[in-house]
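DM from R.C. (forwarded with permission)

"hey, sorry to bug you on a friday — could you get me a structure for this? deadline for the figure draft is monday and I only need the backbone to look sensible"
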Amino acid sequence: MCPRYTRKNRCQKCYGGRSVVEALEGGKIGHYTYEVKSTYEETSEEYNYQPASGTMVRIEDVSALPTNVKPGDQVEFVATYALLDASPDADIKITEIREIRYEGELVGRPEVTLTHKGGTYSSTVPLFLPKDAKTGTYKVLTTIQAPNASDSGETSFTVEQ
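My reply, with the result:
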């Protein structure tokens, strides 16, 4: 079992050792974790969800923490999203994708596929920057995909000397 496993945070996939590309070459993706923020019932009420509308995905917030880092530091990509399906007990297969771009070029794309029940979730993917990471602003597009539904949100972080 992964040492990061707890009742609230379940490591679904360890990226340890996988490198990202180009401007972040030498960087490492850490352990993916998630936390259940709200139940199906709470989320359904908050969004006035109608089961006849099918699967719903709504990103509530995306962030990169901290927003200013130095080469060799760690930055965490956090996404909070609502996920609902007509059946409260349905297992919904989702894919979380974070596309990291530097000067418009794709430099990293950590992705994880897993199954959730309906509710609101917060997930975190840490990136350990290489010591020679290029300075400047990196944009991160987070996409949550489910069958017949998806949503995206963007954030950024800046590497400074």
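R.C.: lifesaver. The helical segments are 40-46.
me: no worries. The domain at 22-159 is CATH 2.60.40.10 (Immunoglobulin-like).
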